[in-house]
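tool_call: predict_structure(chain=1)
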Amino acid sequence: MKTWLAAMTLLACSGAWAGVQVNFEQPDKYTDVPFSTPDRDVVLNGLADHFQFLGKSLPPGQQLKIEVTDVDLAGREDVTRRGAFAIRVMDGRTDWPRMRLRYTLEQNGKVLASGNAYLSDMSYLQRIGRYSSNDSLRFEKQMIDDWFRNTFNIKPKGRSKPVVSLQQREVQGR
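tool_result:
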């Protein structure tokens, strides 16, 4: 737990330099994040890295503060097959990615925009993806990109690096 808190503190500090500060509020109570601490850290660090990547598209001098309050990853973890690897099944029915967050965009201490956001992508399996199929967070990143573009009217430049968890295998159900 101490390692996780230290990592999140370091991540929050590094986010301030990049124009984005990301905090995860009570991640152990999120709707759907990996069961194991190492896998959960990979997911949360991957999401934070992606927000920081998007922050590079903000105009100079702007600071975005994000407080993630819930995460529900695409697919569902198949607990009947849990063993050495967690298996995430994606069938496109009720398992689309979702996220709740609060955000504040500031410039020189003045609030430009703020609010609560509920991100969701019901058609995540039918879309042409921007991210590689080996990126464990490809559906969540696409959803976050859509929110960023629609909220701040800024199209993300490029793609963030893939998040690949060796402990997570994905199976797309039919």
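agent: The mean pLDDT is 81. Proceeding to next step.
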